[in-house]
């Protein structure tokens, strides 16, 4: 087996002139991985190339895949993801993955941008001040999550936990979601990608399925994200994500397709007559 024509074309568009060392050391794996990730999976979904690469970068940060992140960041920049957008993906990961996990990816992003001649720091994208971050954050939180739900979260919080709700409003939403550089629907797709890639965050991921719907991302967009992440995060986390999508935004028309019939097993070859002599 070798990468098919479509896989080679898509691969060459993202990585012009690059030949993976794994193609020499592990050709079997790379051949069928490339056919799957750069052809078969790309045939499904509604994401444009730039958005697909952005959610993949977000998932690679959440999954701590630093080496693959460097490679895919180069592809994303080649495909037209801007330096500001690349940086905003990393910044958006901080409230979800934590700075401890994002730190190395921030440095890797700076290294890649610098190697491409991009001067740092980039133009700032913050729109809040220490005085306005909580008010503006609460407003955007209610827009994304829903005002009734946010009010209920505040009302239900014990007195000694109320500070966490305020952190969510001021820091998670006020410091991050109010930034320019990426629009709200894109930020919500990135957040969903990070949560499903991390695993163990199913309650939060389910909440962000609903949040995506609130900002205009439909079921098809979320299924597209899960599908495009599959080669990078594996089947268990992808299937968990699809279950959450089905719970919040069920399909209007369940598929009636049956699984493909298995191919007949080949007849066993006869044993050599002298094998036990």
UniProtKB/TrEMBL annotation:
InterPro entries: 4CMD/NDH-1_regulator (IPR052512), AhpD-like (IPR029032), CMD-like (IPR003779). Residues 261-271 have a biased composition (Pro residues). It comes from the Bacteria. Residues 27-110, 164-246 form the Carboxymuconolactone decarboxylase-like domain. The lineage of its organism: Bacteria, Bacillati, Actinomycetota, Actinomycetes, Micromonosporales. Residues 250-277 are annotated as: Disordered. It comes from Dactylosporangium salmoneum. This is Carboxymuconolactone decarboxylase family protein. Coiled coil: none annotated. It holds the Pfam family CMD.
């Amino acid at each position: 087996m070798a990468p098919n024509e479509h896989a080679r074309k898509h691969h060459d568009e993202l990585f012009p002139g690059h030949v993976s060392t794994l193609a020499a050391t592990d050709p079997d794996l790379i051949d069928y991985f490339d056919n799957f990730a750069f052809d078969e999976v790309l045939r499904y979904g509604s994401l444009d190339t730039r958005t697909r690469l952005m959610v993949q970068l977000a998932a690679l940060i959440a999954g701590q895949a630093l080496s693959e992140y460097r490679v895919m960041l180069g592809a994303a920049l080649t495909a037209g993801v801007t330096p500001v957008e690349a940086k905003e993906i990393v910044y958006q990961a901080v409230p979800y993955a934590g700075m401890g996990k994002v730190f190395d990816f921030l440095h890797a992003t700076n290294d890649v941008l610098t190697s491409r001649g991009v001067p740092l720091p980039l133009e700032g994208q913050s729109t809040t001040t220490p005085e306005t971050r909580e008010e503006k954050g609460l407003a955007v939180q209610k827009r994304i999550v829903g005002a009734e739900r946010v009010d209920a979260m505040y009302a239900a919080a014990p007195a000694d936990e109320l500070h966490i709700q305020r952190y969510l409003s001021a820091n998670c939403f006020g410091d991050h979601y109010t930034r320019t550089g990426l629009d709200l629907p894109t930020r919500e797709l990135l957040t969903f990608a990070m949560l499903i890639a991390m695993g163990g965050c199913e309650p939060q991921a389910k909440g962000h399925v609903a949040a995506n719907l609130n900002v205009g991302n439909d079921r098809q967009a979320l299924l597209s994200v899960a599908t495009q992440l599959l080669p990078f995060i594996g089947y268990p986390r992808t299937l968990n994500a699809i279950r959450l999508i089905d719970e919040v935004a069920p399909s209007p028309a369940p598929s009636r397709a049956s699984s493909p019939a298995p191919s007949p097993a080949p007849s066993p070859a006869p044993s050599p007559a002298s094998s036990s002599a």
